[in-house]
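Many introductory courses stop at the sequence. We go one step further.
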Amino acid sequence: MFDAVKVKDACVLWIREFFEKNGKGCNAVLGISGGKDSSVAAALCVEALGKDRVIGVLMPSGVQHDIDMAYLLVNHLGIKHYEINIKGAVDAIKESIGKELELSVQSNTNLPPRIRMSTLYAVSQSVNGRVVNTCNLSEDWVGYSTRYGDAAGDFSPMSLLTVQEVKEIGRVLGLPDVLVDKVPIDGLQGKTDEDNLGFTYAVLDRYIRTGEIDDPATKERIDYLHRINQFKLQLMPVFDPGI
C-alpha cells in the first residue's frame, strides 16, 4: 500500500536537503497551471521551505480558460506569483520561422512549453531561484512531456510518483479537491491528457506498479510509447574520443 504521509514527509526533507546543497537560501520557482502536478509541487516546496521562498509563475498563451484554478492555488498557499503571457513571444517566433520554413504540427505543439521553460529560467535567475520540475512518473513513462520544456528543471520531487500517488499526496497536503481532481489538460490544445494518450492514467498507473493490464492493445501502445521516448529520460549522448 502507498503511504502518502510517509512519502510526503520524506519528499519534504529531500527538498530541504537539495536546497542546502544546491542553493542555500534560494527560492523555488515553478510554473503554475492549476493542475494537480504544479499544485502538489508548490505545496511540497511551501512545506519544505516556507511560503516566502516559493514563487509561482502563471504563463498563459493568450486566454487560458482555467487560469482561475492557478490563482486559486497561489492564493491558497499564499505564495508570491507573477503572470507572464507568452503569446507574443510564441507568435513572434512562429512568424519569424514561418518566413523560412513551415513548422510541423509537433513543433507548433512543443514551442509554447519551451518558451514557458525559458521564461521560468529567466524569472528564476532574476529572483535567486531554482526551477522545480513538475513532471510525474506516469507522464514520463510514456513520454508525455516536452524535452527542454516542462521536462526540464533543477530538481524533480515527483518524477518517481504516479498520477494516483501524486493525488494522494495532494490530499495529505490539504489542497482543495478541485485542484487535486482537476482533469489534466495540456493547456495548449484544449485536449485532456487522456484524450491525447488514448488511455487513462488509472490504467497506466496500475500497469506501471503491478504489470497488470486488461487490454492487449492498450498494453502494446503503452509499451511502444515507453520504448520510443526513453531518450527523453537519459542524458544527452556524448562522444568519448578515448583520450
